[in-house]
């Protein structure tokens, strides 16, 4: 068949369960392939020992060398499409930006820093931020310019990031005005860069698209010849969209080089797109596929009995796997399984993200996954909004989670949120977590040291390997091995949590932290004290065994008994200013 659409239509004509065998080679998609209830029972499977590669965009040819080492090529985009990325032999290039990205990839480099808002102006941080004098470039036109900026749900927080369209720049007042939302605010310590102006195109590896003339401009990196390399542009965040389908399997395909949308706050609130997107689908199976350089790899919305297993996911702009509601609604995704996936380099554009993120879900098993290098969380789930996205009976077990929270001031490896009014009745057990850290900027542009925790300092970074936040209650945390993190296990605001038989080693902060901050004034009828018992924890020099801060809930908030703590001197390396 000449296309996926033609193969799909031929399968529909047969009128029964059909296997579409996809042969190896490159498939360039100009629009998402749509499947609906007519396709139920279909299998899309790679031919044996062959690798079909689906690209979320187009090849670009006929490059010409211009002035000053720049090259350009004409790109005629489909109507309504934009360019979400340029890839050279599969490697993502940099959209022209100011200041330039650091050559060594250091996450602390390549930023400007917002000035601290004036008293009373904090609430305006969702639609503007102030620059330090002399930082802003001179721009005659801000069309197409976006601000990549850190912030959070509240002003002066740094637990996420977004890409906000720049509306205007007031050079006289050093103010950047942006299109924003009611749930993402900048403030003191927010770091940012600007991207998308022609004048920013000045460094190897950068590109800029002249939309008016349909021409792509590029400065090659060392050793790159655009006339000889495979040059592709991303136009699609979604490759396959399944709506109302049942009993479909996707296996052995490769999805690469897609547009980055799907996990930002502006316009979607983290609930959109996905290279494979399933909406209202039941008994779906996504198995042993490969995803690289996409916005979200797999997005399951309001679907039942979906299995995601054995997939290899690398370099995603936001969440790797999202399981829950879709934007604008709060339908449920129940009885799912996310098993044995390899996930790495998560949240490369949108920091508030996770290797696996779930909401509005019941009976979800997350097991035997490997997650490495995430901007914020390895696995995160529960309820963010209240009972409308309540989650129950999640089991998170036997996962290996390495080097998470590498780009935010507040995060961890495995997190449960509990904005709902009922217990989560969930388990976090037998996981291995190591290398959880934080990245928090001060208003002067310096950063807190790595692996840093100081209990009597605020603002200050938060890095909890296992993190129960926002009143998360009824979670059993059992038998986990946590090594070389900051805080081991933290409880914030919830009740009825059981922390038992965990091993905490070589942390630089407290082994256990309990705070009633997010739950003050909230004590439901079913509330019982949290318990921390029969754990084994090493306490480093400068750390602590347990820190309890519960001025509202008092001494009945937590029971601590039969734990074994020992001190072995300072960890390596010791955080220092």
Keywords:
577 residues; mainly beta; Pectate Lyase C-like; Immunoglobulin-like; 4 domains; 39% strand; globular
Question: What is the element layout, followed by pairings?
Answer:
Layout: H1 4-14, E1 19-22, E2 25-28, E3 33-35, E4 43-46, E5 52-55, E6 57-59, E7 64-65, E8 71-74, E9 85-88, E10 91-92, E11 94-95, E12 97-98, E13 112-113, E14 128-130, E15 146-151, E16 160-170, E17 175-178, E18 191-195, E19 206-210, E20 215-218, E21 231-234, E22 240-243, E23 249-251, E24 254-256, E25 276-279, E26 285-287, E27 290-294, E28 298-301, E29 307-309, E30 312-316, E31 321-324, E32 337-339, E33 342-346, E34 354-359, E35 365-367, E36 370-374, E37 377-383, E38 395-397, E39 400-402, E40 410-418, E41 426-429, E42 432-434, E43 462-469, E44 475-478, E45 481-483, E46 487-492, E47 498-500, E48 503-505, E49 510-515, E50 530-533, E51 536-539, E52 544-549, E53 558-561, E54 564-567
Parallel strand pairs: 1-4, 2-5, 3-22, 4-23, 5-24, 11-19, 22-25, 23-26, 24-27, 25-28, 26-29, 27-30, 28-31, 29-32, 30-33, 31-34, 32-35, 33-36, 34-37, 35-38, 36-39, 37-40, 38-41, 39-42, 40-43, 41-44, 42-45, 43-46, 44-47, 45-48, 46-49, 47-50, 48-51, 49-52, 50-53, 51-54
Antiparallel strand pairs: 6-21, 7-8, 8-20, 9-10, 9-21, 12-18, 13-18, 14-17, 15-16, 15-18, 16-17, 19-20
Domain Right handed beta helix: 275-433
Organism: Tranquillimonas alkanivorans
Protein name: Right handed beta helix region
């Amino acid at each position: 068949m000449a296309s996926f659409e033609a193969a799909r239509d031929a399968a529909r004509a047969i009128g029964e369960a059909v296997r579409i065998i996809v042969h190896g080679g490159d498939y360039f998609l100009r629009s998402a392939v749509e499947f609906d209830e007519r396709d139920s029972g279909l299998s899309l499977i790679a031919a044996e020992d062959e690798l079909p590669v689906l690209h979320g965009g187009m090849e670009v040819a006929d490059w010409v060398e211009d002035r000053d080492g720049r090259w350009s090529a004409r790109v005629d985009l489909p109507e309504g499409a934009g360019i979400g990325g340029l890839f050279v032999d599969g490697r993502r290039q940099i959209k022209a930006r100011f200041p330039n990205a650091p050559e060594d990839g250091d996450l602390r480099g390549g930023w400007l820093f917002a000035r601290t808002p004036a008293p009373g102006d904090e609430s305006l941080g969702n639609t503007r931020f102030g620059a330090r004098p002399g930082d802003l470039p001179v721009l005659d036109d801000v069309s197409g310019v976006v601000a990549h900026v850190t912030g959070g749900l509240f002003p002066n927080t740094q637990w996420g990031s977004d890409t906000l369209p720049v509306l205007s720049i007031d050079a006289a007042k050093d103010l950047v005005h942006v299109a924003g939302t009611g749930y993402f605010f900048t403030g003191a310590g927010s770091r940012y860069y600007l991207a998308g102006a022609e004048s920013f195109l000045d460094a190897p590896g950068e590109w800029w698209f002249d939309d008016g003339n349909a021409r792509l401009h590029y400065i090659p990196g060392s050793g790159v010849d655009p006339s000889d390399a495979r040059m592709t542009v991303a136009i699609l965040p979604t490759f396959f969209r399944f709506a109302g389908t049942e009993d479909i399997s996707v296996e052995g395909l490769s999805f690469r080089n897609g547009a980055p949308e799907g996990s930002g706050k502006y316009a979607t609130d983290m609930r959109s797109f996905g290279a494979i997107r399933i909406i209202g689908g039941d008994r779906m199976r996504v198995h042993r596929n490969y995803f690289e350089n996409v916005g979200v790899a797999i997005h399951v919305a309001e679907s039942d009995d979906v299995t995601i297993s054995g997939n290899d996911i690398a370099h995603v702009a936001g969440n790797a796997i999202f399981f829950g509601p879709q934007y604008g609604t709060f339908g449920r995704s129940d009885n799912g399984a996310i098993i044995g996936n390899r996930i790495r380099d998560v949240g490369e554009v949108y920091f508030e993200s996770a290797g696996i993120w779930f909401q509005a879900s019941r009976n979800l098993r997350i097991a035997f996954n490997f997650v490495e290098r995430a901007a914020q969380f390895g696995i995160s789930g529960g309820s963010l909004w209240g009972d409308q996205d309540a989650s129950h009976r999640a089991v998170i077990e036997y996962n290996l989670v390495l080097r998470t929270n590498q780009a935010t001031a507040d995060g961890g490896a495995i997190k449960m949120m509990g904005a709902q009014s009922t217990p989560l009745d969930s388990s976090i057990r037998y996981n291995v977590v190591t290398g959880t850290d934080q990245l928090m900027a001060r208003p002067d542009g310096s950063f807190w040291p790595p692996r840093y925790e100081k209990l009597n300092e605020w603002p200050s970074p938060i890095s909890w390997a296992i993190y129960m936040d926002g009143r998360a209650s009824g979670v059993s945390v059992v038998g986990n091995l946590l090594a070389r993190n900051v805080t081991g296990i933290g409880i914030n605001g919830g009740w009825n949590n059981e922390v038992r038989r965990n091993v905490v080693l070589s942390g630089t902060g407290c082994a256990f932290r309990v705070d009633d901050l997010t739950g003050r004034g909230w004590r439901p009828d079913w509330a019982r004290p949290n318990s921390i018992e029969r754990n084994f924890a090493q306490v480093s020099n400068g750390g602590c065994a347990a820190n309890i801060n519960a001025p509202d809930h008092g001494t009945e908030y937590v029971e601590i008994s039969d734990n074994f703590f020992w001190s072995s001197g300072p960890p390596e390396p010791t955080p220092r200013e």
